[in-house]
Amino acid sequence: MNPERHITEGPEETERVAARFAAELRPGDVVLVSGELGSGKTTFVRGAARALGVREPVTSPTFTIGHRYEGETPVSHLDLYRLGGLGGEDPGLLDDYLTPDAIAFVEWPEIAGSGLEGVTSKVRLAHGGGDRREIEVERCR
Length: 141
Ligand code: ADP
Ligand code: MG
Description:
Elements: E1 4-8, H1 11-22, E2 30-34, H2 41-51, E3 66-70, E4 74-79, E5 103-107, E6 119-127, E7 133-139
Parallel strand pairs: 2-5, 2-6, 4-5
Antiparallel strand pairs: 1-7, 3-4, 6-7
The chain binds adenosine-5'-diphosphate and magnesium ion (MG).
Residues 8-11, 13-14, 35, 37-43, 60, 107, 131, 133 line the site of adenosine-5'-diphosphate.
């Protein structure tokens, strides 16, 4: 079934959906995670990263565009929010994160426009009122 839709009623549930999704990921996968502020993008990435063996706290990148975690598979977590766009940036900016050995999650991928290559899944989160979130997962291959 593509796309897959889930409704969650709290952050733990979103983490569980993400963990099940992560079980199907492979090194080199690039997962776009979009949705408004507070819709649960970082929560989703946290659940996925945990399931991939990351033990460190998974937090929003603030002073950098990304984090790289050493899980069973390396996990890259990018947040492009503070980047106005990729135009004017070093073209190699994302290269340290989007490596063939790692699974990468990209928050605010819209900011990179078509500059993100090799996208394998797209996750969209939306507020559903209160603690409810609607999650759509689309596999691109
Ligand atoms: P984003 O990265 O999209 O800005 P975060 O994951 O950082 O969002 O924050 C989501 C916030 O919403 C957290 O405070 C989280 O606890 C809360 N929340 C409430 N219900 C849910 C839910 N069903 N799924 C995910 N987060 C939820
Ligand atoms: Mg976030």
